[in-house]
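=== RUN LOG ===
request id: a7f3
mode: sequence -> structure
chains: 1
length: 218
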Amino acid sequence: MRFGILLSYLIFFLGKILTFRNNIKLIVHPLTKDRLNKKLPLIFVFWHHDIPLFIFFFKNTGYYPLISYSKDGQLLIPILNRFKYGVIRGSSTRGNLNALKTGIKILKEGKSIVLTPDGPLGPRYSFKKGAIYYAKNTGVPIVPVSSALQNKWIVNSWDKMEIPKPFGLGVISMGPPIFIEKTGNIDHKILSVKNKLLDLEKKSENILAKRISIYRKK
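=== RESULT ===
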């Protein structure tokens, strides 16, 4: 755990450097903004490769990410504590029932949770049913979140994790709230939310391309 605490300080200062002077444009759907302003609970979903940026984006919110019992997950705990997150332990492969029960309890208490539907082990852009389950059983909507970065390192990992470089433009997009009905085919619901998250990622990339074009003309 001591190593994890030291790592949390290293990542904190590294994050300050990497996100320094990044001109990030935040785009929030009006219905999502309304729920945020009213401090209503939400289920945020984004792809696993966006974790480095969103650790800083969601810091100090008190949101509850789902963290696996793996060694990598254990190392994240002091980092998340440093950034004032809550934590739900479990994943699609281990501690699943506990994670589902805890997540539902947290949402019913009016707090928000954060999920990476293709984590912790992929495949990339797969969409596991956890977010659908939470939304269906609590009435709390899912909000897709995506990013696009001009300058980044891409890690040679299954998710092609993206680490922001300093001095670049970026876009973070929050889509509209997606409410999940209790009845109906769950596979259809999963595919629908997955496609909306993929579409939001494309929109973020398009908005970033336009921003880069405008800056280059100045």
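=== NOTES ===
The chain has a mean pLDDT of 88.
Residues 2-217 form one domain.
=== END ===
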